Amino acid sequence: MDDITARSWDIADILARQLNLNLDVVIRLINMVEKDQCTIPFIARYRKEQTNGMDPDSLRNFTNLLNELRLVQKKCSTMIKTLQKQGNLDKKTQLSLQSAQTTDELDHAFAPFKEKKSSLANRARELGLDEAANSVLSKPNEVDLRKWVVKRTEGRSTLSEVETGVKYIIADLISKEKATMDKIREVFQPYRMQLESKLSASKKKEMEKKNSETKKAGTTDLKHDFKKGQDEDITKYQSYHDFICKLPSLKSYQVLAINRGEAHKHLTVKVTISKEIESKFLTWSKSHWTSNVHKQDILNLLKYCVEDSYNRLIKPFVLRKARSDLTKKAREEAVDVFSRNLKKLLLTPPLRGKIVLGVDPGFKNGCKCAVISSTGNEVLETDVIYLGSKNAKQKIQRLYGKHKFSVIAIGNGTACRESESFFSQFITKNRGSDLVYCIVNENGASIYSVTTEAQKELPDLDPNLRSAVSIARRLQDPLVELVKIEPKHIGVGMYQHDIPDTLLKTALGCVIEDCVTFVGVDLNIANESLLGRIAGLKKTQVKKIIEYRNKHGHFINRKQLLEISGLGEKTFQQCAGFIRISHKYLVDSEKIENNNNNNNDEKPEVETTEKGRKRKQKPSTAVKMKKARVDWKMNPLDQTWIHPESYELAEKFITNLNLDVKELGKPEFINNVKHAIYEIGVKKLADKLSAGVPTLQLIADGLSQDAGFRDIRSQMRRPLFRRGITSMQDLRCGTKVSGRITNVTDFGVFVDVGVGQDGLIHMSEVGGRWEEVKQCLGPNDTVEVLVKSVDSQRKRVSLRLIHANLSKTTFV
């Protein structure tokens, strides 16, 4: 390894240490990610033996840190090459760059050498005082700085000027030296620092001026009304007007709120370091740089350099890094909140086989209504009703009488409360029916309604009515509908406007990928949006899959994907386990095709044109499909999440249990598999078949699925359906009610208890289990709560958690 790429740290060692992982696991992971280009979902599900069972979140954390360290390595090499070309590279600088483990540390070490960068140390170097500084450090007891005095040369004409220049260079070298950087990491730990925020001087004057004006006007109302165009209220940051907190104790929402307050010039913020820690670092630095110095003038010079380096260079760097780390961590936690909420939303169980009335509530433009078929593929009828009009009830009654919808999906936007009341009365009027309603998150529906995809799907519908269709379909299959919308528009989480768009888009895109691969996708019915979220597939490949399906008919076997141009073995390996081919769907489709084309075989091979000439007839699509089916046979294992690379092992397992793969999905087959696992144990069976325990367990679970294409979301918690509502006035302290979670933040859980205003379960009201609650609960989960307090005027409801299912979804 040459001097440019040689490093003072090993990337695998750092990953193992920082993430508390086995070094062998780290090395295998690096190879899978970088050499084999495996996707996270593929590694998480099909390479458990090699990762010791790491979940997707842990794997993404690993790859993010790996990418950061690779970026540091790449940037370091570029910087060293740049310095070589400039002739500014020495061993100390090279070692400082190579010891840096973050881009911040790299930038700090490289700062003096940036082009067009004017610094005190650089100006001293331009005067030719580098040699003098190096002499002071290498021969402190022999050096005589008068040697570098040059008469009538600005900056070097006197001994004092030479000493000043040398001090700047040495202070700079001290701040960049490897030993110094190592000591900085050791000493300046977050728990030794605190953050302070205060009301900014400008806002303080503004508030005092407003208070003075209100007193003159003879009123006691001290609320501040800002000028037109300003949307921030000074009381919004009141909690941070005189705020002090140790860095490790800061919550992510506090950091983001303080950052926003500072950006809007409401707050002044600073990080402080304890005097004890500063003294400790300075004592070490002076000892480190002056231990062998006996010459008094040089000793004094070096002590001054140490203090100057700390106050002018090191301390500002430490404080900047502390703020940067706080913000980075807060953003990551905010994104994590988004991710957990989005996962819950996407994994809400689909509503199968129900005709749904989707309602996009509104006052001025009325409530847009759309009746959707039980499959979700057909819009049966649309209409617009105005809640205050005389014919509103008649219109809904007519739609109900004609289509017999059984569920009403009401968007949670403007006029939701009034629409809820209207349809509750309608349900009461139709007693004896099985009618229920459900409040559905409508965020992003209006954005979707004007997209190109919406225009393709619903070309004949007005965009306002498309949003009603989207709301209904979100209830029928949240995953299929919500993948069409940019994650940031779905509106779950907190402080989304303070998160960089690229960070949010990447993180939430990963969540959608996890959910799609977790549930699986039927290759023959999935749309382009859904296929595009499968790990390992690119947009161009998805389009080719759709084209292939349109041209050749339904897929019979997973391996047919290899016939598609541009989709090779590597892509097939990464995506194959996440697609399904439902045999039930294929059989039903085959029957329909046969009924529609039962005379195809009787048609002549030639046909007569209008002029009497004969020409060869082109084979129909049905005939092409039939010929294709001769070459490709159905494989029952294609209905499961078992990967094709494990089919041979799965068949051995089935044979070992004296079962027939053709019986896959039948109750007796499933019971025999479960019984064998229970009686013999996975470990013994794995040893017998020379297989890994996680792989065999995955196979056993796949063989235990119901017949056909079973949706794993069916075991998740269903959304809350209601028939009637209450008002806020009906709530009483001590009342126990059921509610549907609408959002989870870092400070509490918002719950819809059916009164038109979400209540808040504060993090202190969950029985000391906040971390568990935060990780496990999300939108559409149902909880039992106790009403603590009701403030009708301020529209606030405080709740206490009584009961919730805290089982966590595992993505495999």
What does this structure look like?
The protein starts with 10 loop residues before the first helix and ends in a 9-residue tail after the last strand. Among the domains are: 11-182, Arc Repressor Mutant, subunit A (Orthogonal Bundle), CATH 1.10.10; 185-207 and 235-345, Tex N-terminal region-like (Orthogonal Bundle); 356-531, YqgF/RNase H-like domain (Nucleotidyltransferase, domain 5, 2-Layer Sandwich); 728-803, Beta Barrel (OB fold (Dihydrolipoamide Acetyltransferase, E2P)), CATH 2.40.50.140. The longest helix is centred in the middle third of the chain and has 51 residues, at 296-346. Residues 1-5, 220-232, 595-605 and 620-630 have low confidence and may be disordered. The chain is globular. It has 812 residues and is of the alpha+beta class. Helices cover 48% and strands 11% of the residues.
Biggest sheet strand line-up: 6-5-4-7-8
Strand content: 5-15%
Using the 3D structure, state the CATH architecture of the domain at 356-531. Answer: 2-Layer Sandwich
Query: CATH first level of the domain at 356-531: which class?
Result: Alpha Beta
The CATH topology of the domain at 356-531, please?
Nucleotidyltransferase, domain 5
Mean pLDDT: 84
Can you lay out the helices and strands and say which pair or pack?
Blueprint: H1 11-19, H2 23-35, H3 40-46, H4 48-51, H5 56-86, H6 91-99, H7 103-110, H8 120-126, H9 130-138, H10 159-176, H11 178-187, E1 193-199, H12 201-216, E2 242-246, H13 252-263, E3 267-273, H14 275-290, H15 296-346, E4 356-360, E5 367-372, E6 379-385, H16 392-403, E7 407-411, H17 416-429, E8 436-440, H18 445-449, H19 452-457, H20 463-476, H21 478-482, H22 501-519, E9 521-522, H23 528-531, H24 539-552, H25 569-575, E10 579-580, H26 583-596, E11 606-608, E12 614-616, H27 621-631, H28 647-656, H29 667-679, H30 682-688, H31 693-703, E13 736-744, E14 748-752, E15 759-762, H32 770-776, E16 782-791, E17 796-803
Parallel strand pairs: 4-7, 7-8, 9-10, 15-17
Antiparallel strand pairs: 1-2, 1-3, 4-5, 5-6, 11-12, 13-14, 13-16, 14-15, 16-17
Helix pairs in contact: 1-2, 6-7, 8-10, 9-10, 10-15, 11-14, 13-15, 14-15, 15-22
